[in-house]
Amino acid sequence: MQKSKFKIKVKGDKVIWMVFLLLIIISAMEVYSTIGKTVYERQGGSPIMMFAKHIFILFLGTCVMYAVHHIKYTYFSRFAKIGLFVSFILLILTLILGSFGDKAAARWLTIPLIGQFQPSEIVKIILIIYVARVLALYQDNIKSMEVFKKLMIPICLICMLIFPENFSTATILFLICFFMMYIGRINNRYLISIVIIGIIAVISIFALLKANPDLLSRGGTWVNRIEEYISDDKTAITQSNQAEMAIATGGFFGKFLGHTTQARFLSESHNDFIYAIIIEEGGMLLGIVIIALYLILLYRGIQVARRSKGYFGAFCAIGLIIMIVFQAMINMFVATGITPVTGQTLPFVSYGGTSFLFSCIALGIVLSISASANKDQAKEKLEKDITEEDSVDLTSEENKSKEENQSENNFETKEQNN
Q: For the chain, what are the domain ranges?
């Protein structure tokens, strides 16, 4: 009988793989513990069916990440321009045709046979890859205004198209691109001007929306969230207060899995506020473990960027890993009341299809860069070992020849003396 040649070969940073697996295990446990309220609100369905769907998404995302990490990361650079063009089309279509659903936010496109799809998730990856590509290609002329324009025009257009319905995602994406430009050595004068213009723009937009919330469909929601955050009224029945109550009742060791009470009051306990439920059930101990896992992910991502031979791999790895960790940080800040409510999920932990799948794609690209760096280092080590062996062999031959010559000279001397 012929044996199957199919083998599962895991490449790239093994620590990143371990962190990912630990996060999805925690996701499976916590989502199962929190989905009851969501099923009840939908007035139908089964928690088991919803949990089964989540497990399928976790499995599918893992398969997608495995497939992506086997693709040479440089291929993604080749399609950056086309991807950017497709991004513009998707975002414009989302604003025009996006389904409003229960949240009255045009963030989704409905694809036949697939369902709802959130374009901003894939657009984030495409824009980061594009920025990494431009930074890598123009390092010799990186301080010029021309390169700055090549970066800022697409960044501003993409973020402006995301902004009307997803302020937090647009802001986070812009900040990630800004950080990439900073480490990419863009002229500091240009970066300082961006900071000044950005601060003025945010203050102006908030003032306009406060005066007239109907300027944007979600303008009133943004103003209310910021005002709630500023007022800090602990007696009000808000999602932030409910999340903080969950954290406060969790203690150090928590109530243990399945014993949450605040999940019944948090409307997004399985998604936006899952970190609060993690602390309620697992205590501060599990909360610290989650933070540590993301910090390890950040550290390993930076190491991947440092070991990458080319500029593109380094910029791409650092941009994508910061995207994942920064989103996680914002989610945890919201749950603990440090920042206003944003609607950002906890990567690899929150319930969700689009966000999880594209986070897996992003991490898969980082693993591809890591695998390529490992391969290059192994090749260099092999070449070094071969060179050293050849050098040792050559030295041995030279020493042997010298010994033979010395022996012959000694023999001749003895003959002459005799």
A: 29-387
